[in-house]
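thought: fold this chain, then report.
action: predict
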Amino acid sequence: MMTNVATDPEQQAELIRQARGGRAAAGRHFRQAAQEPELLREWVRQNNVMYGALIAIGLVLVQPFLTTTTLNWSAKVCVIAFAAAIPLLAALVLVNRQETFRSRVADSLAVRATRTIAQLLAYAGWSPVSGTSIGWPGW
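observation:
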């Protein structure tokens, strides 16, 4: 149940200004935190663990489908998504090794796009839509 509260236009405009100022302050705080070298190194380490875990999950989920002769649509989605995601994730692990070596984060459009695509494909291969997630009926 939602409650409507009547406010005057000046008060509403002030609330909107405060909300915009809060978002701008949060963006400045995030950009400032992103410049700290120790925080950047921690992000690289966490990304490395995440990419390795997604590769391991992909290998575990795809392995049973390699010996079957026919696949239903959910198994095909899983296999195709992880077949595309695993090489991208492996490339991102190598990029992370280079980032660790150079002590800076790669900020190119190709790396950002690869991160997004690899994570989306890994999710698609492991999502409840594909029928391969833990707890899904028939797992």
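thought: worth noting. Residues 73-102 form the longest helix (30 residues).
final: tokens above.
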